[in-house]
Amino acid sequence: MPTAILIVDHGSRRQEANDMLVGVGEIVRKQRPDLIVNIAHMELAEPDIPQGIQKCIDDGATEIVVHPYMLSPGRHATSDIPEMAQEATAPYPNVTVRVTGPLGLHEKLGEVILERAGLHEPQLQS
């Protein structure tokens, strides 16, 4: 069963914000070249969720895992994105879709925050 992951963010009117999701998709694609990896925006930019779902299907996916690229389990991650994904796959009864939770709490997020702050290495006392 060819599996795709569709990484979905909110979408922005700022192109540089939307371009970041392209970079996230490239990172995931390098880490898992066996998967079909595509991206989509919930609103304000393209590809939107139906376009992203269609791209996964066109790429051969029969299973699509939708990941809300958001920090918190708010309305978009828990309701809007799952509903949009279900609607977009409704015409394809042979395609299964599931939606993951958002990024949420994870130790690796702490590592990224500390790295961005330049504090990833403990300071030695002299």
Q: Report the sheet-strand fraction.
A: 15-25%
Shape: elongated
User: What is the number of E strands?
Assistant: 4
Quick one: CATH class?
Alpha Beta
> Number of DSSP helices?
4
Which blocks of ≥5 consecutive residues have pLDDT under 50? none
What is the share of helical residues?
Answer: 40-55%
Query: Which structural category do the helix and sheet elements fall into?
Result: alpha/beta
**Radius of gyration from the alpha-carbon trace, in angstroms:** 16 Å
Task: State the CATH architecture.
Answer: 3-Layer(aba) Sandwich
Mean pLDDT: 94
Give the tally of structural domains.
1
Q: How are helices and strands ordered from N to C? A: EHEHEHEH
State the separation between the terminal residues, measured CA to CA: 57 Å
CATH fold descriptor: Rossmann fold
Biggest sheet, strands in spatial order?
2-1-3-4
Largest sheet: 4 strands, parallel
What does this structure look like?
The chain has a single domain, classed as Rossmann fold (3-Layer(aba) Sandwich), CATH 3.40.50.1400. The chain has four helices and four strands, in the order E-H-E-H-E-H-E-H. The longest helix has 17 residues. The protein starts with a strand and ends in a 10-residue tail after the last helix. The protein is of the alpha/beta class and 126 residues long. Strands 2-1-3-4 form a four-stranded parallel sheet, with helices on both faces. Helix 2 packs across helix 3. 41% of the residues lie in helices and 18% in strands.
